[in-house]
Every structure is written in structure tokens, then in C-alpha cells.
Amino acid sequence: MSTVASAIRRLWCRRFLALLVIIAVIAFIAVLTSPQLGATIEALEPPGLPEPVLVSEQVSLDQGWNAEDADRFHHKAQGTQTLPIPLSWFLALEAPQNSPFAMPFFERERFADNRYLLRFGFIKSAKSENNEYGLPIGFAYSPFQSIRGLARKDTAVGLTCAACHTGQLIFKDKRYVIEGGPAVTDLGQLTNALRAALAQTALSAKLPFFDGRFRRFAKRVLETEYSDLTRVQLSKELDGILGALVDQPAGIDVTEGFTRLDALNRIGNQVFALDNKR
């Protein structure tokens, strides 16, 4: 009798384990096909970008400006806060991996490197008094700014008029810079790529033993203040900024592209909708 009872118990155990496996498989399939997972993976994936066009010489056309005037137009801060992160974060952030599954294993160049930013259509610019970090034409930074999701003030990164009003023409291995001309940038792709870079970095902070991307980011931002405690605090600040970005409505619902920018709607929506609670 005990042998029969043991056989029945083993049979019920096998059936119970099979049921658990079936439930786990169903749950796994549900997660893979859920809109939430799709949205998460989409946020982690950067846009496909063309390689920058490299030339041997960059020429500024003579339009009555000297080099100092042009540099002020290109980089003098105008109080804008285009990017949602502090300057120190922008300089420390790595460009996003093309696949989020490669994120734990490989290191990429910095997001702020010219070799990455020029892929969005920006124009290379030399270091100067107004451009300490050698960012492309149109980038500037303003100190003591309030940044959504951050409890303290910090130096913000913004775009100047020159970002959208400096054109370029490439001919016979030369890039001609046209002051006041229409830019060929794609700010929508810049936004998507920055979102992916931040999301990958935030996810890296949550992965034990595979947090290399966030650890490198934290060491660059915190420098001599780097410790386990400050790293955890930085991770919370990153989560806060990403949360503020998620809560913020889209600034525009039009897919733009290179050389096309719906400036009036972007500015109007920013002033009359996004900034009205500030």
C-alpha cells in the first residue's frame, strides 16, 4: 500500500511541476509580447545614424565676421536648457550601444565626442574661451540652472541660435560653413539617442556584476568624490531625471528629420505648454 501511495505522490508531484512549467512559459511569453516590454526595449535602442562625412579642411566663408564674433555666435550661452541632464553628465555619458544586449559587455565613445555628435549633422568647432570642451557649433552651457528631476541646481547644456542657423556645404573634400544658413541637423534623432544612452546607463546600475557602463559614468561624474554611497545617490538622481522625462508630454508629434525642424511648434509648445508650470 505504501508503494502505491508513493507512486501516486510522485505522479502528482510530476503533474504539479509540469503545471508550474506551463505557467512559467505562459508568463514568459506574456512578458515578451507585452506593450510595456516593447516600450522598454524601444527606449533602450538608439536610432540608426549615418557615418559623419570627413573632410580634410573646414572653411568659413567671409561674411564680415572675425573669428571672435563667430565664436560668440556659435557658443555664447543664451540661457537655454535643451538637454535634460547636467553638463558633467553629458560629458561623462557614453554613446548608446546599437543593441541593448551588448550594453553589459562593451564600452563606447562618449556621447559628447565629435565623432558621435557629427552624425546628427552638427559642425565641428574648435576649443575656445566660449567652447571649453570643444563641442560642435551651437552648443553652450549655462551655470546654476534648475533641471527637471534634479533637486539641486547645476550647469545645463543648451543649443544656441547657431545650432539651427549655421549651414554647411561639402565640396571636393572641403566643408564650407555658412553663417546664418539652414542647419542639416536632426534634433529628433539626437533626442532619441540621448534617451537610449540614459536608459542604458540607468539599467546598467541595476545589473549586479554587469554594471560597467554605469560605473564608468559614475567615476567620470563624481571623480574624487566617488564612493559606494555617492554612486547610489547618483543612480537615484538618474532615475529621477528619467522619471521626469517620462512624465513630460512630447514637445511635438511630427517626425522631422535631417534639415527639417518644426521650430515654431517646438518653441510654442515649450513656452505655452511644457514651461507653464515652472
Structural features, described:
This protein has 278 residues and is mainly alpha-helical. It has one domain (34-274). The protein is 45% helix and 11% strand. The chain is built from ten helices and five strands, in the order ααβαααββαββαααα. Strands 1-5-4 form a three-stranded mixed β-sheet. The protein has a two-stranded antiparallel ribbon with strand order 2-3. A hairpin with a 2-residue loop joins strand 4 (166-171) and strand 5 (174-179). Helix 7 packs across helix 8 (212-222), helix 7 packs across helix 9 and helix 8 packs across helix 9. The chain is elongated, with a radius of gyration of 24 Å. It starts with a helix and ends with a helix. Residues 26-39 have low confidence and may be disordered.
Give descriptors for this structure.
278 residues; 11% strand; 3-stranded mixed sheet; two-stranded antiparallel ribbon
